[in-house]
Amino acid sequence: MERLVLQEQFDRIIDKYRPILVDLQYTAIQLYIRNRIWKESKDSRIAIWGAGEHTLELFKLIEDKISVVAIVDTSSQKIGTEIKGIRVNSPEFLQTFKVDKVVISSFSHRHEIRSRLLNEFENIEIIDLYDIYDRVFPKDSLSPFYIDEYTFTKYPQEFRLYQYMIEHEIGSNFELYCKSYLSLLLHLKEFDKIDVLVREIIRNDLPNSDLYEALNSELQILLRTAQMHAGSRTCKDIFIFIPDSMRMKDIQFCSFLTAFSRQAITFDKAFSPSTYTHASFVGMFTGSGKDGQNYHADSINGEESSLFRFAINNNYEIYQSGGHYISNIPNLNFITNLDRFQKNIPLSTRWWEVLCRLCNSSRPQFHLIHILETHSPFLCAEHLKPVSSRFTPYNYYNNSSDKHTDGEAQYHEVLRYLDKSLESMVNTLSKNSIVTICSDHGGGTGGDEPTGHVFTCYENDIHVPFMIRLPSAQPCKIEKLFSMSRFDPMLASLLESGEIDDNLFTTHVYTARRAVYKSEWILNDNIRRNAGEWIHGFKMLRSSEFKYISFETGRELLYKLPNEKRRFKQKKRTMKRFWETCALVCREVIPNVKRCEYENGHHYSSQNGFISTARQNSSSSPCR
């Protein structure tokens, strides 16, 4: 196992101060329920309403640390049975047992139970374990505390942070909040937030404030030392940051990324090879640089990659943090985190892993860092407004009346977090570092377009950032069309010679994807009806003027850019010009093009045969 000195130093600090922290074995909602019941049960006669699975799981969670005087339920099948040696009775027995408080131990029926308690037992206090989140999350975003539901397994760290903030706002125990929140921030390596929280602890003069201050001081010294080490490296380290689903148009909303684009070689018209991450990685990292390759291969074979060959030949240590594994690259280290939280590792944790490696070796390093915060449902470690996990293509198409108009605001919160984080990370690196910021594909954020990236190939879905900051190259903006299927050879050319390879530009870009692949989507009548043709696979060809789409059903669409709302209407005599402009790709890429369907229902035959791929020839590189 790789020994990481920086991580060992961090662990020693945490071990030293462990008595003032809390165990993270519980999710935020579990920790809240445990502490609320323990607190409410003091000097009270507690009953539980509900005798199902929820109550069995609740007893496991509270560890028999409270005395329950009664369990009640309305089900005739459950009345008379026992749970933990306690007989289940009908609700009328609450008065008989002189109960002070009732815990509603049901998720799906809690509102009905609450209503009955208010109407029939007005002197009994109600403990609703989920009411704390009612005004925070949409009703379909929560699940019972014991369910490994999408929200809490795929994005647990973001929801924990948000839940702690809300619990604090509505009056939960401040000391417990601080300890829990700090423990999570330490786990996520969110050092800026740790510093802010510790200052708040000191300002409120909480118990052990001096220990929290000492912990923060040691951590900040450790972080500054690591940053200084990373910034003083003399080798030409390579960093590729890939924010999943980020669009080129998002750069204008990010102050750091806007400034970075002016300091870099920026491909202003770069387009993704697919709208699926795996397929885009196939196009970007397999090294063929060709349209029409098999973007849907089961594995991403990096054996022919010019980019990784450059890294290997120049003795780089190669690390991939997240994304789809790129195979057949000797000595590639795929960084995973086996922590029980981390299905999707947050950016702060990924960056800590990078820092650990930079402090561990003097050899040049190559880091590919996949960032998931920008992927729907747009969750990060810093939200100022109520958070929803339901900004997904499934929810968008399954309920056509809800167009996720709030998705844009949540996405922009993620952009602010990403921009601030990348600024800190890039500024930490040495001036010799080569930094690339790009995306695998784009996506929609709701409103008039589907949320996410699964279905369509509008400009938001395929127009992506591609920016490279080379210490030896002059910044410039390149406005030629560029397909990210040529990302690998283009970046390799820049690393080897510092020059743009003009042969990699074409007069078109090509994007393809398979049919929508999730059975719960394609078997859903609402989704099939609302998504329409986009449920099927397609191949798309985009020139500077037109966008042509061929679905696997045989249907074809044509748009004259920038208008993608209405299909292009044109007279028959202009069709030859269209094919010469738009269909500049060989028959094996889009083999079955026979006609183009227009809004007025007329069909026109295409010319026989296709013009071979045309390249834009330039006598000099755009950056020369």
Description of the molecule:
By secondary structure, this protein is an alpha/beta fold. The chain is globular, with a radius of gyration of 28 Å. Strands 7, 8, 10, 12, 13, 14, 15, 16 and 17 form a 9-stranded mixed sheet that branches. The protein has a 6-stranded mixed sheet with strand order 3-4-2-1-5-6, with helices on one face. α1 packs antiparallel against α10 and α9 packs antiparallel against α10. The chain is 35% helix and 16% strand. The C terminus is likely disordered.
SSE blueprint:
Blueprint: H1 5-16, H2 28-40, E1 46-49, H3 53-62, E2 68-72, E3 82-83, E4 86-89, H4 93-96, E5 101-104, H5 110-120, E6 125-128, H6 150-154, H7 156-169, H8 174-188, H9 191-203, H10 209-231, E7 238-243, H11 255-262, E8 265-271, H12 277-285, E9 300-301, H13 306-313, E10 317-321, E11 326-327, E12 332-335, H14 347-358, E13 365-371, H15 393-398, H16 407-428, E14 434-438, H17 459-462, E15 463-464, E16 466-469, E17 476-483, H18 487-497, E18 509-513, H19 519-522, H20 525-531, E19 538-542, E20 546-551, E21 556-560, H21 575-582, E22 595-597, E23 603-605
Parallel strand pairs: 1-2, 1-5, 2-4, 5-6, 7-13, 7-14, 8-17, 9-11, 10-12, 10-13
Antiparallel strand pairs: 3-4, 8-15, 8-16, 14-16, 18-19, 19-20, 20-21, 22-23
Helix pairs in contact: 1-10, 7-8, 8-9, 9-10, 13-18
